[in-house]
Design goal:
The structure holds two protein chains of two kinds. Chain A is α/β, with parallel strands linked by helices. Chain A has nine helices and 26 strands. In chain A, α1 runs parallel beside α8. Chain B is built from one helix and ten strands, in the order ββββββββββα. Classes of the chains: A alpha/beta, B mainly beta. The interface between A and B is medium-sized, with 24 and 16 residues.
């Protein structure tokens, strides 16, 4: 293999590039990213960076002494993948031909239809998004967060600490019910009320009002919530539109195996854009966890370098964390299949506990609040047994 | 040299934290080796003794940074700076640590606290 192109220059792309070099690939390595920035860490964008306690230099994922001997093509978006010559066409007219391709284009924040151009309305995915939101939050005022998921909750927490008046609006009856189940979703989202942040659940958003700048959020039930700043945190969609016509199987991302192998030889997919087959659940899953973008590219690179001739291992159970209101929230495994959740240690009321999810008596997931030591033990155990 | 704990009290796969400032932890690997490194992750304030010990690597319990126990080097982000390593000696069944004289790489929040500033 003489040229490998990694399309996507965030954590998954960087992890793939590192794995290529670590596994002895010495050929040409081209990393293509549609943001002008070198790889940076996104989790702090809703927390320390937004709060102003961490600067841009702190976000860099590369070490000062690191040199992957890569060509960085940063700025132009990839617009097409030609499967016959494995050529990636870029928005600036350039074409990169490669023997191996790693797809790591990630996901983009969903927006509210009809809100383009309305000042004061933000999504949070990129460094540029975070800069803009940080500057607005610094001016204070009333913030309405649409979406009670993790990004929304973290933004609410950060803004609350900055002294803003914050309301979170969630369409579902309970926030976080998808990832955590309804019971624990209610426990975690109770952190908002603990800190004086209003949580409005079970009602959809009809629209936003305001001429040039947003002034209120209009709810489906007729209520109006005044707002100086609105953050839309309603999930993300995989960036795979550019792959239509490439011959790749696309369904909620790039359909692939646990080792990233796609329906095209010499093309693997990793990170948020990959809808990969999880042997633990027997289904395809697109998981947007930071740790997945860190860990799975190595298996994909191994597959790419071996021309598909290697057996995929079983990946670790998915793990994510969230920091809200000074509480460390950690989750591992799959909540969906659980039939019971029990608190094994600590207390819900004190926001310090370890809860285990079981299916037919077998642990399938664990949730910790401010219990990193115990949580890590469960994480290790779930990796060994589930 | 600082006494840590008795070797018999530190099973393989476990870590023992010395509550000095900054804290240091001794790891007993599954292969029976002993290593001492700074306990605080260089990325954010977390105790590596609470982390995931696998082979000669420990993974931070919060954000999954990995450190090589032998060298202190970063094996996985988000951490970028190594932890210090310290010499470990065992005498008469007791584990001792000889502290490194290098400056530690503490995360920004901890460094600020030690300097007397706001955390």
């Amino acid at each position: 293999m003489r040229t490998v192109a990694v399309v996507g220059a965030s954590l998954a792309g960087l992890s793939a590039a590192r794995s290529l070099r670590k596994r002895g690939y010495e050929g040409r390595l081209v990393v293509i990213g549609d943001e002008p920035h070198r790889p940076y860490d996104r989790p702090p964008l809703s927390k320390e960076f937004l709060a102003g306690t961490l600067g841009e230099a702190d976000l860099a994922l590369e070490r000062d002494d690191e040199d992957l001997q890569a060509e960085w093509v940063l700025g132009p978006r990839a617009t097409a993948l030609d499967p016959t010559e494995r050529a990636i066409r870029l928005a600036d007219g350039r074409t990169v031909r490669a023997d191996g391709v790693v797809l790591a284009t990630g996901a983009a924040a969903r927006t509210l239809p009809g809100t383009d151009g309305l000042a004061g309305v933000h999504t949070l995915r990129t460094l540029d998004d975070a800069r803009a939101l940080r500057d607005e939050l610094a001016r204070g005022g009333r913030l309405v967060v649409i979406g009670g998921g993790f990004i929304g909750a973290e933004v609410a927490s950060t803004a609350n600490a900055l002294g803003l008046d914050v309301t979170v609006v969630e369409a579902a009856p309970t926030p976080l019910a998808g990832p955590l189940g309804a019971d624990m979703g209610a426990v975690v989202s109770a952190l908002h009320a603990d800190h004086g942040v209003r949580l409005v659940c079970g009602v959809g958003v009809k629209g936003l009002s305001g001429e040039r700048r947003v002034d209120a959020v209009l709810l489906e039930d007729g209520r109006t919530i005044p707002a100086d700043i609105v953050v839309v945190g309603v999930g993300a969609t995989p960036c795979v539109d550019w792959l239509h016509g490439s011959g790749l199987a696309l369904d909620n991302g790039v359909t692939c195996g646990a080792d990233g192998r796609t329906t095209l030889a010499g093309v693997v997919a990793v990170g948020d854009c990959a809808n990969w087959y999880d042997p633990r659940t027997g289904t395809h899953r697109r998981i947007e966890h930071w740790t997945g973008a860190l860990e799975r590219p190595d298996a994909a690179v191994a597959t790419l370098l071996a021309h598909g001739a290697c057996e995929p291992g079983v990946p670790r159970p998915p793990y994510f964390w969230s920091d809200q209101y000074g509480v460390k929230i950690q989750f591992v495994g799959h909540a969906a299949g659980a039939d019971t959740v029990t608190v094994e240690e600590g207390s819900l009321a004190e926001r310090s506990f370890l809860a285990v999810y079981r299916r037919a008596g077998t642990p399938v997931a664990a949730l910790g609040m401010n219990q990193p030591r115990l949580f890590t033990r469960w994480r290790k155990q779930l990796a060994a047994t589930s | 040299m600082i006494p840590a704990c008795r070797l018999a009290d530190l099973p393989r796969g476990e870590a023992h934290r010395l509550d000095i400032d900054p804290p240091v932890s001794v790891f007993h690997t599954d292969d029976g080796e002993l290593y001492a490194i700074d306990d605080t992750c260089t990325h954010q304030d977390a105790s590596l003794a609470d982390g995931w010990l696998e082979g000669c690597e420990v993974e931070c319990p919060l954000h999954a940074s990995k450190f090589d126990l032998r060298t202190g080097a970063v094996d996985a982000p988000p951490a970028k700076l190594p932890v210090r390593t310290h010499e470990v000696l065992v005498e008469d069944g007791m584990i001792f640590v000889r502290l490194s004289t290098e400056a530690p790489n503490l995360p920004p929040c901890v460094a600020a606290r030690l300097a007397g500033g706001p955390a």
